[in-house]
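FAQ

Q: What does a record look like?
A: Structure on top, sequence underneath. For example:
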């Protein structure tokens, strides 16, 4: 279930919750703050950290075009199969033809960027492995929009362009893969088109990756390249199966997208596990903070969507391209439609007992994909305009005290205005209180660290807030 009640209740009070934080900036607030009153009513409040979309973001979101998305999905499905093991040198059919078409489309979008967006094919040869019987070239297509002032900080949005039939090793049968995952690729491509003419502080990578159905191979290669280069990936979203609002029983939910976010980190070390067990934090991983940020900026009337955060890494028996990023300690999460129809994914195209099977474009909802694209756009654009997630955040534990002293490193962003300390009851899913503390690196709250969870986020002069960083004990 969603960690936060959704619907009109949340929407009607969202603006008030955001307005309460709007005064944050460079001016320091008093060092002492009263402990929030406990009570069950807190569970019904929207996040106090919510950020209302401004005029520039609303203009961006209005540019997302369902017709272009539909054309992209239908063109990808028309390649017949995009199986990772399918032909790579046929100009009309197979994964090679799809790869080259995606590359051309992204280059056409990048042409409007004045050189700030570049498009590359990231290829390697995968030696025989699980579901890869012979050496196979796997190619990711990356559109990179370089940031102006903090280009080494990176955010990634991806979809996978390979597809499959019922037999995961069948590289010749038709596998149109419209929902799984031309829909996700279309989201990344539409973001490339819309963002090509915009300037951002940080860098955005919009990716179409291969090898997902065979074992997340393309995403693993991309994540490993980021790790080897020391790239500061502060957020990654995979869009996988985001094409339909209709469930297998025919019910529709066109205004909800699921966001899967892990709790206990995949790459947690034994020492980190001991700390987590000691102080809590199972619900405060970097992935959970990223998911909260998405709700803060993208669950509103500008996107027309409810973001339903699921407190799991992924669905049962399934996995996605965010997992290789989690394995390398990058914050990552997965967008997926609200309820899947399994007759229209991982199925041979056929009619059986009068029922159509197969992942065909006719079963996609292109208006829904456009709204998912707006959620992604609101999240990644705000991330790339805001300061980076604070680093070195600690909670001082050198002495027994009923106060809470927080420390952190100052960011290097030229437009950094200051910081906010957030807090909530340990039983609350969302942050309930925000306290502006100014351009400082230490702050004391007159409330017990034993009773509450705390975090720190950065604010720039334009009023954009970063994701929250959860503090670790510091003696």
């Amino acid at each position: 279930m969603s960690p936060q009640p959704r619907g009109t209740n949340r929407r009607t009070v969202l603006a008030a919750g955001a307005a309460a934080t709007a005064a944050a900036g460079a001016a320091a607030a008093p060092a002492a703050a009263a402990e929030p009153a406990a009570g069950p009513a807190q569970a019904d409040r929207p996040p106090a950290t919510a950020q209302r979309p401004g005029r520039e973001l609303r203009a961006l979101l209005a540019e997302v075009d369902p017709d272009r998305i539909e054309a992209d999905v239908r063109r990808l499905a028309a390649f017949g199969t995009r199986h990772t093991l399918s032909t790579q040198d046929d100009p009309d059919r197979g994964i090679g033809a799809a790869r080259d078409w995606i590359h051309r489309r992204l280059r056409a979008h990048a042409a409007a960027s004045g050189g700030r967006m570049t498009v590359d094919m990231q290829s390697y040869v995968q030696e025989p492995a699980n579901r890869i019987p012979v050496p196979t070239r796997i190619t990711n297509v990356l559109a990179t929009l370089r940031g102006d002032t903090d280009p080494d900080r990176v955010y990634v949005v991806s979809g996978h362009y390979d597809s499959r039939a019922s037999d995961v090793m069948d590289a010749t049968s038709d596998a149109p893969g419209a929902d799984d995952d031309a829909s996700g690729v279309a989201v990344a491509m539409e973001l490339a088109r819309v963002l090509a003419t915009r300037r951002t502080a940080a860098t955005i990578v919009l990716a179409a990756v291969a090898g997902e159905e065979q074992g997340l191979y393309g995403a693993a290669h991309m994540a490993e390249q980021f790790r080897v280069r020391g790239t500061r990936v502060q957020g990654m979203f995979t869009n996988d199966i985001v094409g339909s609002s209709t469930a297998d029983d025919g019910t529709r939910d066109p205004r909800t997208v699921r966001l899967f976010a892990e709790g206990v980190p995949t790459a947690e070390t034994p020492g980190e596990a001991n700390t987590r067990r000691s102080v809590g934090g199972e619900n405060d991983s970097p992935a959970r903070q990223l998911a909260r940020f998405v709700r803060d900026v993208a669950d509103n009337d500008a996107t027309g969507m409810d973001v339903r955060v699921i407190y799991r890494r992924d669905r049962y028996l399934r996995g996605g391209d965010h997992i290789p990023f989690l394995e390398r300690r990058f914050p990552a999460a997965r967008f997926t439609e609200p309820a899947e129809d399994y007759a229209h994914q991982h199925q041979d195209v056929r009619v059986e007992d009068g029922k159509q099977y197969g992942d065909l474009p006719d079963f996609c909802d292109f208006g829904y994909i456009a709204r998912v694209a707006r959620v992604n756009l609101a999240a990644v654009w705000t991330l790339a305009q805001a300061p980076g997630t604070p680093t070195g955040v600690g909670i001082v534990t050198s002495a027994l005290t009923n106060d809470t002293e927080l420390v952190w490193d100052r960011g290097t962003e030229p437009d950094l205005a200051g910081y906010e300390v957030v807090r909530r009851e340990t039983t609350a899913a969302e942050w309930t209180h925000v306290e502006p503390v100014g351009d400082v690196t230490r702050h004391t709250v007159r409330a017990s660290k034993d009773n509450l969870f705390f975090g720190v986020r950065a604010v720039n002069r334009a009023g954009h807030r970063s994701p929250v960083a959860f503090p670790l004990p510091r003696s």
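Q: Is there anything notable about this one?
A: The radius of gyration is 22 Å.
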